[in-house]
Amino acid sequence: MTLRSATLVSVLPETTPLWRAVRNALLALAGTAIIAISAKIQVPFWPVPMTMQTLAIVVIAMAFGARLGFATLALYVLEGAVGLPVFAGTPEKGIGIPYMLGPTGGYLAGFVAAAWLAGWLAERGWDRSFLKATAVNFVATAVVFVFGLAWLIPMFGFAKSIAVGVTPFLLSSAFKIALGGALLPAAWSLVRRLRS
């Protein structure tokens, strides 16, 4: 596999199909742990505190690729569904399926879709430059918002859904989009230096 078509994970050494399967399982578990931690950390920001969850999701998906990124996010959602307190606001606001059926349910589905899309674009080299990686982060974040709004609008109507589900997060999302756009090209630069 050439560096041009590779993801960051695919440049890791592998020897056998069994080792690859074990490595991917361990990476998925580590990815869910990172996402859970990022959901719990609140960074002071205006107008609302910022979690680093969407940043972690998109960066992990770009590093892992479409299939492993999708599997990691599906595992994360499954962990939450069985009652592990991996989501932002759990266990304080509930756990498991009841929590997932609340206002955040659409965003959770959006995480899975955004992970697949970000990984797919990364497999096509969209993680190598700041502009392209930023575009991937923007599109993946937009996917999360679209899924979130599609879930919220039947509950609250369009205007209120925009007011509570999008507007308060625009500035923090812009910050995370730019940061995510810088992280992947920096990681690839390091890989190229280590290989030369």
Q: Overview of this structure, please?
A:
- It is a single chain.
- The protein is globular.
- The chain is built from eight helices and no strands.
- By secondary structure, the chain is mainly alpha-helical.
- It has a single domain (57-195), classed as Arp2/3 complex 21 kDa subunit ARPC3.
- The longest helix is centred in the last third of the chain and has 27 residues, at 130-156.
- Number of individual domains: 1
Could you report the average pLDDT, rounded to the nearest whole number? Answer: 93
Tally of DSSP β-strands: 0
Shape: globular
Q: Please work out how many helical segments DSSP would assign.
A: 8
Query: How many strands, what sense, and barrel or not for the largest sheet?
Result: none
Secondary structure: helix percent = 55-70%
Distance from N terminus to C terminus (CA atoms, Å) equals 17 Å
As for the CATH topology, it is Arp2/3 complex 21 kDa subunit ARPC3
Structural class: mainly alpha
